[in-house]
Automatic annotation (TrEMBL):
SUPFAM superfamilies: NAD(P)-binding Rossmann-fold domains
Source taxon at top rank: Eukaryota
Signal sequence range: none
One Gene Ontology term of the molecular function aspect: oxidoreductase activity
Keyword check for Transmembrane: no
Similarity comment: family membership: Belongs to the short-chain dehydrogenases/reductases (SDR) family.
Pfam family, one: adh_short
Entry protein name: Uu.00g129950.m01.CDS01
Key words, A-Z: NADP, Oxidoreductase
Length: 312
């Protein structure tokens, strides 16, 4: 954290540059979890850059509110520029229903030009998902992986209908390097890794967002495999897959809650005021990832390190 402090402060005040106007003209871009924060900001960027955007929300009302915000911020007047679809990432059935509806509307036309899987959650307290898994693991790792597998396979099938490969962008976090993954193989003898991470008795209450780094590390392992599956027989990517860390961003999901201790609220607000980027700045890394070349397939997009430095 402190080794990268100067870079984080710089990122707060000097954002990643935006690509030229019209960079996504005529393209169709999916952004999941786009009702607030980074997802909302990313969808706004894509619309402003010329894209037709599909945004997801857990309910229609929330999606329509986001639609109006995006259009107003991007200066768009045509409601067809922003389509709203319902998606609840805590349920596999919702992921499947969403994908089937999406595929029905876009198949045979080259599919999507880009999918940004942004929907996620952070839980300080144990919450069980409808699928019986801890909510952070369910949403950030399991459901995101399911949706990623479905979309990447579909994008690969649509490759003959496209001039260039489609992009699949996963929102990860640099915090995925934090877990002590050397312990993970040992959990296979005690019910398996998922059972270990999703058991309430193993959910530490003295750790900030205890399962968030675990969920992102699980996701990164899965992204590595999906990146391999995206290759064609000649070894070139039929889908350009990347993961991205937007850095520390001051969003609602990161804000302290009123019921939390006052000291914690003050510390978090001070920290975010000093380092936390605006969502509009953090979302620029989503746009950057969506423009990666085939040669950059499989890379981790962030501001704090090069790909070589990250891999080391």
């Amino acid at each position: 954290m402190f080794a990268h402090l100067p870079r984080r402060i710089r990122d707060k005040w000097y954002p990643e540059p935006m690509p030229p106007a019209g960079s996504f003209e005529g393209q169709t871009v999916l952004v999941t979890g786009a009702t607030s924060g980074l997802g909302l900001a990313a969808a706004t960027h894509f619309v402003a850059l010329g894209a037709n955007v599909i945004v997801t929300a857990r309910n229609k009302t929330g999606g329509e509110i986001a639609q109006r915000k995006i259009m107003a911020s991007a200066g768009a007047t045509n409601h067809a520029k922003v389509k709203v679809m319902e998606l609840d990432m805590s349920r596999y059935s919702s992921c499947m229903d969403f994908f089937n509806e999406l595929k029905e509307h876009r198949s045979g036309e080259g599919g999507l030009d880009c999918a940004v899987l942004n929907a996620g959650c952070i839980n300080r307290h144990f919450t069980e998902s409808p699928e019986g898994r801890e909510q952070t693991i369910q949403v950030n790792a399991l459901s995101t992986t399911l949706l990623g597998l479905l979309i990447s396979k579909w994008m690969k099938q649509e490759r003959p209908n496209r001039i260039t490969p489609a992009h699949l962008v996963f929102i990860s976090s640099r915090s995925h390097i934090a877990p002590d993954f050397m312990k993970w193989p040992g959990y296979s003898n005690n019910g398996g890794l998922l059972n270990r991470l999703c058991a309430e008795e193993n959910f530490p209450l003295d750790v900030e967002n205890p399962n968030y780094p675990n969920s992102k590390l699980l996701l990164m392992y899965n992204i590595e495999e999906m990146s391999k599956q995206a290759l064609g027989q000649d070894g070139t990517p039929q889908v350009i897959v990347n993961s991205v860390c937007p850095g520390i961003v001051y969003t609602d999901i990161a804000s302290p809650k009123a019921h939390e201790p006052l000291l914690r609220q003050l510390v978090v607000r001070l920290f975010m005021t000093l380092i936390g980027k605006k969502p509009e700045y953090g979302a620029r890394f989503y746009v950057k990832a969506a423009l990666k070349t085939p040669e950059e397939h499989g890379t981790f997009v962030e501001s704090l390190d090069t790909e070589e430095g990250y891999r080391e």
